């Protein structure tokens, strides 16, 4: 079977939008309201002639106080089932407690992690991406899932990590 790439991150950072960008079609459900994607959904994807399975996560509605723990649990499950992890953070918001909880999980996991600094829609927002070095997961790769900016480089990095 093709290798599995899990997309993890807290609600509303743009995971499903990024999945659609990777697929080149609109299949993953994108909503302004967090928590719309069903629990975990797998799709077949191809990039540079290589096939892989992309798993979109995060279809639950945790209450605010349980958010960090719930997202970290989800990340743990996704990582166990994946060959590589694409961790999505909203660069315009910066790293939150929940992002840090996920980063802790991912640093402990013995799986390759690619850090996507999403919502970098233009050159001015690149500085927001740089701030995410603080998560301790290596270079934050700036991307705009919505507009496609940086998505080719991001996918190259994902395939390199596999
Ligand atoms: P998920 O909960 O992590 O799956 O996030 P979604 O993919 O559902 O996106 C949440 C919101 O962020 C939607 O309103 C998207 O249109 C928006 N969004 C996603 N990616 C980007 C991006 O690169 N730039 C901007 N400006 N908005 C984005
Ligand atoms: Mg989603």
Describe this structure in words.
The chain has 162 residues and is of the alpha/beta class. It has one domain (4-161): 3-Layer(aba) Sandwich (Rossmann fold). The chain is 31% helix and 23% strand. The protein has 5 helices and 6 strands. The chain has helices spanning 15-23, 67-80, 97-108, 126-130, 151-161; strands spanning 4-8, 40-47, 50-57, 84-90, 113-118, 140-142. The chain has a 6-stranded mixed beta sheet, with helices on both faces. Helix 3 links the parallel strand 4 (84-90) and strand 5 (113-118). Bound molecules: guanosine-5'-diphosphate (GDP) and magnesium ion. The site of magnesium ion has 5 residues, from helix 1.
Topology:
Layout lengths: L3 E5 L6 H9 L16 E8 L2 E8 L9 H14 L3 E7 L6 H12 L4 E6 L7 H5 L9 E3 L8 H11 L1
The protein binds guanosine-5'-diphosphate (GDP) and magnesium ion (MG).
Subunit structure: Associates with the 50S ribosomal subunit.
Function: GTPase that plays an essential role in the late steps of ribosome biogenesis.
Organism: Actinoallomurus spadix
């Amino acid at each position: 079977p093709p290798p599995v790439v899990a997309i993890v991150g807290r609600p509303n950072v743009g995971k499903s939008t990024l999945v659609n960008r990777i697929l080149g079609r609109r299949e993953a459900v994108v909503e302004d309201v967090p928590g719309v994607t069903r629990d975990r959904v797998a799709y077949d994807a191809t990039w540079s002639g290589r096939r892989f399975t992309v798993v979109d996560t995060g279809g639950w509605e945790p209450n605010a106080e349980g958010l960090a723990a719930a997202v970290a649990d989800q990340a743990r499950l996704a990582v166990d089932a994946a060959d590589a992890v694409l961790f999505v953070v909203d660069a315009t918001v910066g790293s939150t407690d929940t992002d840090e909880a996920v980063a802790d999980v991912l640093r402990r996991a013995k799986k390759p992690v690619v850090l996507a600094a999403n919502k970098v829609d233009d050159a001015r927002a690149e500085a927001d991406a740089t701030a995410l070095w603080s998560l301790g997961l290596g270079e934050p790769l700036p991307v705009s899932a919505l507009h496609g900016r940086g998505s080719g480089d991001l996918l190259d990095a994902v395939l390199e990590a596999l």
